[in-house]
Each structure stands twice: as structure tokens, then as C-alpha cells.
Amino acid sequence: MSNAITISVVRPKTSLLDKPLSKGKGEVSLSSFALLFSELVQYCQNRVYTVPELQTKLAEMGQDVGSKVIDLFFVRDRSWKRETKLIHMLFFIKTTLWKSLFGREADKLERANDDEATYYIIEDEPLVNKYISVPKDKGSLNCAVFVAGIIEAVLNGCGFACKVTAHWHKGTTYMVKFEDHVISRDKQLGDQKSM
Amino acid sequence: MSRQGARLDAKKVNSELFTLTYGTLVSQLLKDYENVDEVNKQLERMGYNIGIRLIEDFLARTGSGRCYDFKDTAEKIQAGFRIFLGVSPTISNWGPGGDEFSLIFESNPLTEFVELPDHCLNLKYCNILAGVLRGACEMVQMEVTSWFVQDQLKGDNVTELRVKFIKRLEDAIPAGED
Fold first, then answer.
1. Using an 8 Å Cβ cutoff, are B18 and A28 in contact?
2. Do A59 and A48 touch, CB atoms closer than 8 A?
3. What 3-state class would DSSP assign to B167?
4. Which residues form the signal peptide (chain A) (predicted)?
């Protein structure tokens, strides 16, 4: 990065892991978050040309956040135990994760009628979209792809390979599409239990 | 129409979402620029953009009027941190001229899960705050500058942000308006 020679200085640094894990009850003002998010969106927008590119970029940044909350929440709220059943995992996301991150549960969790690998998490008004008005020429843009990125990273990180996208439908609908092997594995798990 | 102050206060978000979102932004900047000084500059600029909008929120919530002196300003800045970040920095180390002081942070939601890697020793991780102060004060006709003297991420006991008054800005008509 810098071309100067870095002389490593011996610093009396306490490692992050030496400190106790916070209870996660800290709060900041919504205005602070909204303005920070707005800067993030603007920054991404300035570096891309099209709406899909912008969505991809926002989703990537969401994934970065998502990959970091997995351990945080499972260590703190579930005493280290990860979920193995698909439906429990989705429920964990709808309730615990949503509540911790956004202050309330997601409105709905549904499965597609015609496809057992597709689930929908539905939210009337995502926190991130609260102060965003989408310009007319970018109608399809939904900045909640950032949240979709968070969900995707959490599910992938927990072994449920999937793609998550955000759509304007009943507010915002996050479409979670699992890979087939995840579904068949989940069925096997179910069979073993019922035997 | 008057607005109810209480209604404005109710809106809060989890600080971890905030912390991680900021962290993502900083790491994205580091990837994009590969030059720590440029990242510091960019963070300050983003802070400035936030500051010029945040001040309005501050005035609406607190209903505060003009500052009598820079001490007054310092207290209002302190109150701002309490409202927007939920932390109360201590005001100390006033300069002899009364135009310079330090804000001492014991904790700071921006740096909650952060460790600086060795090649980022020059990164001013919280530089966005310096920008916020500059932007917010500029909107109330005050030019200030601020910089970090101590930083917990670099092994110091506290984080110290030094704030200096530069000058009063005269009312100017925005460019392009008559």
C-alpha cells in the first residue's frame, strides 16, 4: 500500500478478543445511520454506470456486514449453536437477526407455491429505505439489496448456499433461492429425525 | 406548525449495524484507493456531506440558538455526539486563546470491532467525524478544523479529537443565486 518502509512499532495493544463481547444494546440515532448509508450509496453510485452495477456493489457491501454478524449473533444469542435445519435458520433470520439489526422482526416469511427452493422474506418498509426516494430514471433500484446482501452472507456462511435478491413487491420482498443440494440435504435431515 | 420533540427522539438504530456499515465503507475505500492518505481525505469529505445536513436535525431537536462563545460551541458539539452517536466525549485541554479544545472519547461506536492492520498505521479511521464537525459548523457560519491527536486504535488510552476555531464566516449568497 504505502511505499515507505513500515517499521513495526511495538504497541501495547489489547487485542479485540481480550475484551468482553458487548451485549449489543448500544444505539445510535437513525439520522446518523441514514446519512451514513446515504454516503455509502452515493459513493457506490459514483463508481458505477448502471443500476444493476450499483445493486451489485451495494449487495457486496451488505455481504461484508453479513459475514461479520454470523458469529456475533450465534455466540451471543444462541450460545455457540448454529442451526442445521433450513426452516429454523430462516426463522432465526426473520426474528433474532432482524430484531437485533433493525429493531423489529421482518413482517413475513413465505415459501413459493411452485418452488420448494424459493422463500420470501417480506418487509413493508426496510430501515435502509426509510429516507430514500428513488429517482424516476432509476425505478428498479432498491437500496435494500444491501440488506439482501446481509441475508445472503449469513445463509451462505451457515452452510445454506443461496442467492438473495431484493424486489419492490408488497413493500420490499427479499427472494431467497436455495441451491438444490441444500433442499435435498434438508429433506434427508427430516427423514432421519422421523425414523 | 410545531413539531413534537419527543417524536423525533424516538428513532434509534442498533449501533452494531452502524459500526459494521461504517467498517464496510472504510474497507471498501481502502480497496478502491490503495492509498491511505486518499482514504483519509475521502472520509473527511463524506463527513462534511453528513455534517451539513445533520446540523439541521440538531437544531430541530435541541432548539438551540446562537453560541455566545467557543465554550458554548464546545458544549453543543458534545451534546451533538450524545444525540447522534450516544457517546459523551469530555471537553478538555483548552488552548490559551480559548479557541482550541479537545474532545476525549473513552469509547466510540465507530471503532467497536476494529483492529488496524500494520500497513494502515496512517489511516485515520474516524476521520469522518472531523468532516462532520467542519460541515456542521460551516452551516452556522463558523469555520473550524479538527484532527486526531490520540487514537485508541493506535494503542493510546483514549481517542482525542482536537478542535480549532478558524474564523467566523460572513453571510454569503450561495453561488448562482441573486
1. yes
2. no
3. strand
4. none
Asked if residue A142 lies in contact with residue A166, where contact means CB atoms within 8 angstroms, the answer is yes
Q: What is the least distance, in Å, from the CA of A113 to any CA of chain B? A: 33
Collapsed DSSP state (helix, strand, coil) of residue B59? helix
Topology of domain B15-168 in CATH is Muramoyl-pentapeptide Carboxypeptidase; domain 2 (3.30.1380)
Nearest CA in chain B to A10: B155
Element (H, E) at A41: helix A30-46
* DSSP labels, B79-91: HHHHHHHS--PEE
* ipTM of the complex in this document: 0.89
- Torsion angle of the four alpha carbons A129, A132, A133, A135, in this order, in degrees rounded to the nearest 10: -110
pLDDT in tens, B131-177: 999 999 999 999 999 999 999 999 899 999 999 999 998 876 666 66
The alpha-carbon gap from B3 to the nearest alpha carbon of chain A, in Å, equals 17
Q: What is the pLDDT of residues A95-146, one digit of tens each?
A: 999 999 998 999 999 999 999 999 999 999 998 988 888 888 888 899 999 9
Dist CA A67 CA B147 (whole Å): 32
DSSP bridge partners of B167 = B143
What is the C-alpha separation between A91 and B70, in angstroms, rounded?
52
Total residue count of chain B as it appears in this document: 178
CA distances from B154 to A14, B122, B131 (A): 10, 9, 20
The residue ranges of every structural domain in chain B are: 15-168
Contacts of A29 in chain B (CB under 8 A): 11-13, 83-86
Using a CB–CB cutoff of 8 Å, tell me whether A56 touches chain B. no
Contact A61 B50 (CB under 8 A): no
Beta pairing, strands B12-14 & B159-168: unpaired
pTM for this entry: 0.89
